[in-house]
Each structure stands twice: as C-alpha cells, then as structure tokens.
Amino acid sequence: MAGHISPAALSTEEKDAPLAPFDNSYARLPERFFARTDASPVSAPKLIRLNDALARELGLDAARLAGPEGVAMLAGNAFPPNADPIAMAYAGHQFGNFVPQLGDGRALLIGEVIDRRRRRRDIQLKGSGPTRFSRNGDGRAALGPVLREYVVSEAMAALGIPTTRTLAAVLTGDPVYRETRLPGAVLTRVAASHIRIGTFQYFAVRGDLEAVRLLADHAIERHYPAARGADHPYLAFLEAVIAAQAALVARWMLVGFIHGVMNTDNMAISGETIDYGPCAFMDQYDPAAVFSSIDRQGRYAYANQPGIAVWNLARLAETLVPLLDADQDKGVELAEAALRTFQRHYEATFHSGLRRKLGLLTEEADDLKLISDLFELMAKQQADFTLTFRALGDDLDAVPGEGTARAQFAWPPLFDEWARRWRERLSREAGRDEERRQVMRSNNPKYIPRNHRIEALIQAAVERADFRPFEELLTVLARPFDEQPEMAHYAEPPKEHERVLQTFCGT
Ligand code: AMP
Ligand code: MG
Description:
The protein is built from 18 helices and 12 strands. The chain has 3 domains: 190 residues, no CATH class; 126 residues, no CATH class; 148 residues, no CATH class. By secondary structure, it is of the alpha+beta class. 42% of the residues lie in helices and 12% in strands. The longest helix has 23 residues. The termini are far apart. Strands 2, 6, 7, 8, 9 and 10 form a 6-stranded antiparallel beta sheet that branches. A two-stranded antiparallel sheet has the order 1-3. Strands 4-5 form a two-stranded antiparallel ribbon. The site of magnesium ion has 3 residues, from loops. The site of adenosine monophosphate has 17 residues, from loops.
C-alpha cells in the first residue's frame, strides 16, 4: 500500500511521542494546593464523541485520542506517564453559605498543554471517580449532564462567549445511581485554568497568606500578565478579574443565558463560563426566569446575575485585601474602589451589545429608553428572547405593521407602535443598511441550545442509546448565526407540552 506507514515502520521517536505533551504548572505549586489522585478504572470505556477541531487547536492527534490509548485516558482508566493527575482544592460560597472545603470531588486535572496559539490550557476529566474531596459523593457523572455540558459549552464557544470547552465524552459502562440507575459517563473539559474564586477563599480562610500570594502570582502569569508590570500588580489583577467577569456576565445577558449556580466555586478567575449544571437559555423573555431545581429562592435568576457577580467578586477582593496594602483599611478602600468599576465594565459590554442587537450603529441619548421599552413589551407579552431579536434583523425591509417580529407578541399593535419609534431612530443613520444587516445577523443568533431540545437528546441517549439527536444539535449549534434552512425547526421554541420548567444538576 503506497504511502501507508505501518506502525512497525515508525521511528522510536514517533512511537514514544506522548499522547499529549503535558506540562503541569499547577502541579508544581505546593502540595497543599491539590491532592495527587490515581486512576479509578471503569469497566467498558466507549467514546461517544471526540471534538476533533478542538483536539487540533490543542495540537493533539485526534486519531490517537480516539484510539484505545486515548480513550483509556479520556475514561480515566490509564494515564500516560507524563500526566500528573491532581484534584484541586477549593472552598466556596454555595447559595450564600460559606463551605471551607469543597474541591474537585469528581474531577481530575490530568495536565496542561500549550495550544497552537501558545495558550496554556487545562485538560480535566469530570466524572472520573472519587478523590480526597469527594465527601459522600461517588465521584461519578451521569450521561445526561455530560451531554448537556458538551452541547451548551460548545454552543457558547460558537456564540463567541468565553467558556470552558469539551474535548470528549466517554461512556464508562458502569451505572451511576441518582434517583434512578443511569449510564455513567466522563466529560473531558478544557479550560484556560480551573482556578476559581473559591480557590482563593480556600487559602484565605486558613489564614495561609503565602498560598494566596502564590496563587495570585500563578493566576497573573497565566491570565493577566499585564498586571505583573503594573505599579500595583495585585490591585491590577483584581481589576482585571472584575473587568473579565463583568464582560462575561454581560455576554450571558445578551443571549438570555442563565448559569443557574453562580456559587463562588463556579466562577473562574480567567473569565470563562465554567461548571455547566442546571443552566438554561430562556425561551420567553422573563427577567425573573429561574430553571434550576436547587435555586428555590431565585438567587441566581436571569436579572440577578450581574449583582451576584459583584457579590462574588467582593468575596475574591476580601481574600486579596492583605496583598493590596499593609494597612487593612487602605486595602479595603482599594478593593472597594475596584469593585465599583464593575458597573462601568458591565454597561460598556451590555449596552454596546444591545445596540448591535437592535442595529443601532450610532449612539443617541434616548437609545436606552428605546431598548428598555422593548424589553418591557417582551416581558409583558411573553415574546421569545432569541426569535424577537433575530426577527428584527429580518424585518429591516418590511413595511410598518408587517414583518415577522410582531408575531412574537401577544398583542402586536403595541409592538408596531414601538417598531415605529425604532424605524424612525434607524432613519437617522440612513445609508448604512448593509452594515446594519450584517451587524444584526452576527449579534442575534438564530439557534441556541433550547432546553426542550437538550431534554430530548438526553432522553434519546439515556433511554435508547441513540446519540443522533445529540450529534445533530451539536452540528446546528456550531453555526448559530447562519440560516441553515433545513434545520429551521431547531430555532423554534417549545410547544406547550415540550416546555421545560426545571433543570437539574444531576450530580
Ligand atoms: P457542583 O455543584 O458540580 O459545582 O459541585 C459542588 C461540589 O460538589 C464540588 O466540590 C464537586 O466536586 C462536588 N461534587 C459534585 N458532584 C459530586 C459527585 N458525584 N461526587 C463527588 N463530589 C461531587
Ligand atoms: Mg462546581
């Protein structure tokens, strides 16, 4: 067979090349930062899906990862010699209550790689078995939540929103027991890092200032290298984390995303969305929307997210106060001033994003009023968040009183009244129609991971071992801004009997 190289003909160097060129900077931190953890093998690892494009981005050999040696690693059965699997220590405020020790109870950081763009990325298994931090948990994950995280994290990436990614999902062949017996699975997560606000809290509550400093230095090196050269590196670090979180939450708000469990252990210092549990994209616009079954008070409702982000950042700031100034009062003052910048960063991203969603290319004093009046109408008349904005872009050439957006409203004449004001506003930036069309098209997705579609794909996979709905939804969501006419049914909101009222973390 011309051109085919049999494995025997490979040079020893190629044969011995590691599966992944791991370089584990976090594992070089002091022992108290983590617990080294062995593999806890599963019975029958079977690859559900490997994210080939992400593997390439990471500089990894996708074919080898999908082979027996790769799947053994992705299932947590056998690690290559250069991996250094650790469970990270962290604490966190869960629904406002402080828990001094959480940690990776069902996750293992197997190593870091430097990707094609020279960025350091963590490769972590989720559902890979018990660790020192498991408490009473089994260290495992059920198939449903693994598929949900795969779909939603990849959809977020395609929407251009900072997020951890999913490299693979593997069936373990072993059942996990939740309310019922479910298939077990392992998700491979890729993150800029897994350092959380709760990681800082873990050391701060122990009075381990040296560790807080080491962690801050590590995080600066990795995520905010510009802070290193600032007059006041730790203050610059805090300010950078605040700016990143503010921008992130604003991006969530612009697509109707509800994280669901914004505990301080689920907020990454890098500014990536992390820990997809009972998260959801809303269908009908409702500022009070809550889907998570465990969020009984609505603490993490859609409209509360910016305020909660500030609350969480205040917990981070507290851990850094001793590094900000030798005088505690002065340190607190600096931290408070930094926290006050949140609103400015948040509004910069949120307001400019809203303008793009409405196709406003210039700024006018009354724009925010125009926008908030639309949201009020949407809320009162149960308009679908995603479809309303998408339809506005489609309606640019429609005559007043026609077009597709009005169909989203229970009483269209009130929307027509609003649309008249919107068109009048657009007329003041005439001549930029093509640009506006482009801007609206690329800021108002047609396809989002709707809850009823996720529930349906989980059901197909869990009950019938049918992964086609999972594969199909992933394919559609990879191009959220494209029309994809043959997939238009994926843009539709749920029918009454398909509506999902609650999501579960299923841990
Ligand atoms: P989460 O709600 O997924 O953010 O997890 C909160 C904490 O519970 C973390 O410390 C997790 O590692 C831990 N945890 C969640 N599920 C399990 C599980 N099945 N086994 C062990 N620990 C778990
Ligand atoms: Mg978590």
